[in-house]
Records
---
Amino acid sequence: MSTAAAQPRQVTHPDGRVSLSPDAPLPDTGYVNDDLRPLRMEQRNWSTYDFSALWVGMAVNIPSWSLAGGLVALGMDWKQAVLTIALGNIIVLLPMVLTGHAGAKYGIPFPVFARAAFGVRGANLPALLRGATACGWFGIQTWIGGQGIFFLTGRLLGPSWNDSAAIGGEPWTMWLSFLLFWALQVAVISWGMEAVRRLQDWAAPFMLIGGVALLVWMARQAGGLGRMLSQPSQLGWGPEFWVVFFPALMGMIGFWSTLSLNISDFTRFSGSQKAQLRGQSLGLPTTMTAFALLSVLVTSGSQAVYGEPIWDPVQLAARMDSTVGVIFALVVVLMATISTNIAANLVGPAYDLSNLAPRLISFRTGAIITCVISVLIFPWKLIESPSVYIFTWLGTVGGLLGTVAGILIADYWFLRRTRLRLDALYLRDADFWYRGGWNWRALTAFAVGGVLAIGGSYSAPGSGPFPEAGLIPFLKPLADYSWAVGFLAALLIHGALSRFVPERRFTEDRSAAAAAEPTQAEETEPTA
């Protein structure tokens, strides 16, 4: 028997999950640290409830509310808005579960998983793209949380708080609220991933209660649910609706396109594949759809009561007459924004930055860097109007990230059949080193898919950064389907290049990779 067979580099457990063999520890290379190495089996203990609560905590937030309310502001009625959001989240659940499989099976975070397709060094490209996007989202959410503190505290303290001296176009009390909220999130993330899990478990039910309470209050203001449901669509179901529907659908998918890549940052903690599959399926589409229904009903009610749709829940809560109601709304806003922002927008870039320089940047250091960058990019401009927020920001970002999802799924599911040599993800001159640490096939698929996805990006006159005819005019018809175009194009191109122009080392080692998974007789280590 060979040495590899006597001391297997990885152990496959009866439930299909894989861990490194205790007899074959990872060497101290420049591509591994304690945060990036595969988790031990005893560290993988998240249950179905943990994943469901994670999604409730991430989905119940102010941008999700504003996203749904923004569709009403764009002319949809409540049925059209809920349909758009439900369909978008059902679609994005598929890549979420498929990429999450690798985290649950191998106990690895997203940037390490990406090394299989892009190369040990090349994985920094999708990791930094995802990290940069998360920095923008973290800044948006932090500004929104600061606004929540500012507006609702102003309702309690009076005009002296809201009318304080301006600095940089904003009252200094707004900047104070922003910085306080920023510091609170830094304090939470400093406790690590276990603090994130506990925060989600406690915050999820509390935030759902808050959303229902806001619905009850608005129903009383509007004179009942009937008036809230009676607000007509300004688009109808004809051509005007479909012109808005498809880019809005891509925006819904783009909303969670970041998590569809780095969901393995969380599923690596899963106690089983069933836990992450069931938890995500129960948590994401159901919560987003239910929360969207709450949002569009309340936004429709605000249109009936105030004569215009108010799609910002903070602005709406500030109109409450009850001091107790305002305080409750303030607590809900803080819980909702913190739980979402840390889980969705801080965990991912913390791992991504750690992957860039594992010896210098730990998970916590990466989180602090993300927090600092988010202050410097002034992302609140993105949410000033629904059209820019949904079409320009979410559509463009979603198109680029869709290409990465297509590459990862093609590589992991169709080319490798979910089999990876775990230690090679951390080594030079092994299966995933390719040429100098980069896989040109994945880079080509990313470039072509990215151009097809966002090359035709356009803006209405005076409403965005793109020319009306599109960046590349003949690609403009594809722009409304950016995520789908990027995903499918990159999946097909990467799959074709890898099949017809394969890496020599990959073709030679495919049988070795399969042999690296021990037989049932060798599966002696107990399952956690």
---
Amino acid sequence: MSGDIQHDRREAEPGRGERLADWADGRLGIYSLAKTQMRKIFPDHWSFMFGEICLYSFLILILTGVYLTLFFEPSGAEVVYHGTYTPLKGLQVTRAFASTVDISMEVRGGLLIRQIHHWAALVFLAAMLVHMMRVFFTGAFRKPREVNWVFGWTLLMLGLLTGLTGYSLPDDMLSGTGVRFAQGAILSVPVIGTYLSFFLFGGEFPGDDIIPRLFSVHVLLLPGIMLGLVVAHLILVFYHKHTQFRGAGKTEKNVVGMPFMPVYMAKAGGFFFLVFGALTVLAAVATINPVWAIGPYRPDLVSTGAQPDWYLGFSEGLIRTMPSWEINAWGHTLQLGVFIPFALFPLILAFMLLHPFIEAWITGDKREHHTAERPRNNPSRTGIGVAWLSLYAILLIGGGNDLWATRFHLSINLITWCVRIGVFVVPFLAYVITKRFCQGLQRADWERTVHGRETGRIKLLPHGEYVEVHEPLSPAQLHTLTAHEQPRPFELGPKVDSNGVVRTFSRSDRLRARLARAMYGPGTYIPKPTAEEYRQLNGGDHH
């Protein structure tokens, strides 16, 4: 009898893992937190993967960056190269350049890790831009997600700076030319430009201090801030959840999707390894930034075709396309041909930061929005986004005008003047064409809603007329095409009130009314069919 009791006690004793879980839950409350949060429902859509690519690329950057930090020597001190790469032997190089070549040639797996790091940086920034454009075009930045939009925009800006600082560390001819370009832009700042340059470089360019300073900023300051913003961004995404596209059963007050555990976690884990694998294959087959072939940086030399990575190409395009403009006054020279583009660089990006707040001010919409819009249903916003991207693209062409000229045997002056004109013309045309294109898609949706889907079957009517048979859409399809809102523009109202008193309007109110009329007034969109129109057009045998 006692043996049976001891056997039952052994079976009743919890295992080591269960005891550990109980110990942690008693001190951290993990079980209760997981019970309430891990089963949260999230909507699902293929476009959400761009945000996941951003996250996974960032994690890969941290992992590969830690490995590279173990071997990289951030020093501008000059040494004579005696490594294994024969063409460089006997050359005077900086320790930063020598250690970069050693990582590529002598460290086991160093070249692969270094190229994964570089490719991950490019993919990280590209995915961030596409992810932000997805949020922009679908209106997913509206209340209550404005703060998360600011976090995402800040991450993009910090990503640009992190890419610039990391791109400059190897001290090869390409990165050194980029640092020289940045120093020239800093010198163009009126009054304090020289002082800023001396402060950053520790004296005359290039100096010995810039590489250690860039290294500290690149591996400590900026990644630390970005990691904090990524955590805050994910917490807000988890709290607000993704916006869901309108459809059957999907409203502003519910969420239709899959639970976070185990569905989302399983998909996320698999997708992480897919991204890591794709970047590894890309790094293994496509060489990027071969510093041993480019050679060490020398301040007295510059190579043809020296281009920054794509995400900073538009900043160089601003300066290359700006006409030379100098003002000499009181013994000082103002390089406005450099300073104006240098100042426009953050302003172009800041426009996207402020757009959610500008749009909310114009519409006066203070409601919460948890459903995403189809881009065609807001032609003005979609046109603005495409115009911004077209400006970015035309400046990117300007930043590589020498490569376009040599590759396509064109005049570099012709390309420069085309870009100068295109900066003003192309965004305007892109806005107009995109807006008209969205209106055409809205009209096509109107036709599909009231007439149904074309079946390809031809029917002979009793009076001899041939018509194509249309099949009515399902209620779910009709809901998708007609559930969107079409906001009415803000109006000032009558100039004289009911008591005959002349009303006064502030400048901001008049500006708001003009912008609202331009974005949402008559002719800016195709009104969706009403229920009465649908009944009238489908009441008889019209098809």
---
Amino acid sequence: MTIFGWLQIGLVLIAVLLLVKPLGLYMARVFSGDRTWLSPVLAPIETGLYRIAGIRADKEQGWLGYALAVLAFSLAGFLALYGMLRLQHLLPLNPQGFAGLPPDLAFNTAVSFVTNTNWQNYGGESTMSHFSQMAGLTVQNFLSAATGMAVAIAVSRALVRSKVSELGNFWVDMTRATLYVLLPLSLVVTLAFIAMGLPQSLDASFVATTLEGAQQTIATGPVASQEAIKQLGTNGGGFFNVNAAHPFENPSAFSNYLNIIAMLSVSLALVYAFGQMVGSRRQGWALIAVTIVLLTTGIGLVYWAETGGNPVLHAVGVDALQGNMEGKEVRFGQAMSALYGTVTTGLSNGGVNAMHSSLTPLGGLVPMFLIQLGEVLPGGVGSGLYGMIVFAILAVFVAGLMVGRTPEFLGKKIEAREMKLAMLAVLILPLAILGFTAVSAVAEFGVGSITTPGPHGLSEILYAFSSAAGNNGSAFGGLTGNTPWYNTTLALAMLLGRFAYIVPVLAIAGSLAAKPRAEASSGTFPTDRPLFVGLLIGIILIMGGLQFFPALALGPIAEHFAMLAGQSF
């Protein structure tokens, strides 16, 4: 580790924190229905969209109606994208003449992008037409992100309202998230990416002659626009197979900085917007503090592990001062690879600028563990916020048990119904991750896809299902995922991680909205103080991570001790 490396990391985090307040205030105004500086241009478009779709913007929905709207909209998006991928060879803007996707791969990909996971069992530049990239994948990058934001806003309203059954209107919230937040930001970031050298064209691949005289096919296309919403919407699905390690997606240190800033800014700003909407900015900062503490700890651990290097390589004469550069781009180095890998898994982004499978065992453990914590640091746009609120509810319940009082969160009493629903939500991840991993680790059709036997092979499988159920989308590498078994089971894990979580969360919101909002008293446990921040961190680590420790002990931890003993797998 070097001072220069920490300076690089610090500059990115400072830039993000400077954006949190202005962007958060703007989003709070958007979702409160207040006028913004973009309203003169966008309000007529918004009204026109409601008129075309037959939506009454003033008609709100209860939690069940809101949840059904989310499910129906996502199902429609899945069917449209699945059909588009299967019929790709018949659709326009396919200059390379790519065939339609097989049924299992099309199913996996459609589920992946609709759930904001963006797991990719294909190489984008060798599989997807420009039409599929733009009209299919990029559109879902916007809509899946907007859906998560809408659910988070509905939960935020529930904590403000008193004795009502309505949470808002999903169609209005989703439209505003897309029109007022994601589209303008994507336009700005796209133009910045183009200026940095990212391609943005409808040309087919072209053939170049290398310095050695060989012929090389170089793919191009509408890269910059997809890259922008990939990061802002915490989608992570890259235009190219190697994602942000590809020089057309991430050509320089400046584009790498913008990638990380873009992926963090909206999710963290939405947490600030939550504080603004519930009438307590300190509450928003308390949740942001939890994120920063755990995220910077993760960054430090990965950076330390990667600069420490691998004793197995030291034994064969590799310079220990170089640390571990395997699987990393020289133009980014260890510090920015550690930052990117930690941020993308603390978020539910999933984009990568280095090969996670090539990290040291402890370096690879951190990204996997961050996903398993529930993708709340700060998680996906929207999904991270409502996931953090679930953990906050669990934290105040524990605090209430300690002092013998009925727990409250922002004036709402937390009772048996909310706790049952909260536990149902947090148990979804271990059920999907550990269940599918257990079967895949013993069945021939699961083990046959790993490239490295032993603890590392288990890590490949465990990371895959953690990433899918956590709606992250990054891959540990080495696992051949494009098989009927993994295409199907990973897709099922994605569906469980997204919708089996959203439904109980909205049910919690409906229950809280129907309760009166009590004023804070001398006996109220404050949830905007350092004590609560520490308690919430503890709950996240225990409830989110402890249940995965036995599996981690058999995978990356076992591999770490083998590495110290000079063994390799």
